[in-house]
Design a protein that fits this description.
Layout (H helix, E strand, L loop, with lengths): L3 E8 L6 H9 L6 E8 L6 H13 L9 E8 L5 H11 L4 E4 L5 E2 L3 H11 L5 E10 L5 E4 L6 H7 L8 E4 H7 L10 H12 L2 E13 L4 H4 L1 H15 L6 H10 L3 H7 L1 H15 L7
Parallel strand pairs: 1-2, 1-4, 2-3, 6-9
Antiparallel strand pairs: 4-8, 5-9, 6-7, 6-8
Helix pairs in contact: 6-7, 11-12
């Protein structure tokens, strides 16, 4: 059996955080091999020197490896963006279990051993994911983000709760659904999960696997309008609802007393919610 996990880190000028990302991967403990690929887009900051440092440590057997072995590969060259960088890594990945980890995020200790255990125990699943932390660099707060199980229709109509840094997929599923859509730059993970769920099964397990960093230059902080535009493309592509679930969630949070009704009158709250979504679900695109 192939006991290799491939992690791909796309990066461009992330010298501030990439070392923590690299360390979080190389320090994983478990009965597996790590195939680590760093796809740098031609950084002009200190990123390349940091990447080279760990390359030398691995080559010289100076890094305290805590798994069966580490294959460390990297390059620094101009690419066509994040999806292109990840796809280049996917094409040479040797692991049966794969994930990408952005260069401002990091894995939690023992994350790979936890997901590898579920991968071994559930051989008929294609997508594995757990929970994660959101680290807010604006105020230093760190909170847990809970994922939830779901299928294609649930995630299409209600939005997905798959925490990308804590999501892993099999190499076999790539042969069925293809690589990431390089025409997308923001919501490409959502599109990828939906393609997987159309032909395969997902497995959610309540373990905290990774930390997502929210900071001024992160896409999530600065490119929300672009996320909504690409989500709309996805809804049109798969026949999703015309009204974006995220818009509904934002609107709900603006209504005074919503949380109070949820806490004190949950039956009424859930009834109103059910009626509301039954109406919304009739307003969908034709695919």
């Amino acid at each position: 059996m192939n006991k290799t996990i491939t992690i791909i880190t796309p990066s461009y000028n992330q010298g501030l955080y990439i070392e923590e990302t690299i360390q979080s991967v190389l320090s994983q403990v478990g009965n597996f091999y790590i195939d680590y690929i760093i796809a740098d887009g031609g950084s002009t900051d200190q990123s390349v020197s940091i990447i080279k440092k760990y390359d030398q440590l691995i080559k010289n057997n100076s890094y305290p490896t805590k798994c069966l072995g580490i294959k460390y590969r990297w390059w620094s060259k101009k690419d066509r963006g994040q999806t292109d960088a990840i796809n280049q890594g996917l094409k040479i990945a040797t692991g049966n279990l794969i994930s990408w980890l952005n260069s401002d995020d990091y894995l939690e200790p023992n994350a790979l051993s936890k997901v590898f255990k579920e991968f071994i125990n559930h051989p008929n699943y294609s997508l594995f994911y757990g929970d994660g932390y959101l680290l807010n660099q604006f105020n230093g707060n760190k909170k847990i983000l809970k994922a939830r199980p779901g299928n294609f229709q649930q995630f299409l109509k209600r939005g997905h709760d798959i925490f990308q840094p804590a999501a892993f997929f099999t190499k076999n599923i790539i042969t069925k659904v293809g690589f990431l859509d390089q025409n997308m730059h923001y919501a490409f993970d959502y599109d990828f999960w939906l393609r997987i769920l159309k032909v395969g099964h997902s497995y959610y397990f309540p373990e905290t696997l990774a930390t997502f960093r929210l900071w001024p230059n992160s896409k999530t902080s600065s490119k929300q309008n672009e996320f909504f535009k690409e989500r709309k493309q996805i809804f049109k592509k798969y026949g999703g609802n015309i009204i974006d679930p995220k818009t509904i969630y934002q609107f709900r949070n603006m209504i005074p007393g919503t949380n109070l009704i949820y806490l004190r009158l949950p039956t009424i709250y859930n009834l109103i919610k059910k009626i509301f979504y039954s109406i919304i679900d009739h307003l969908h695109y034709r695919n």
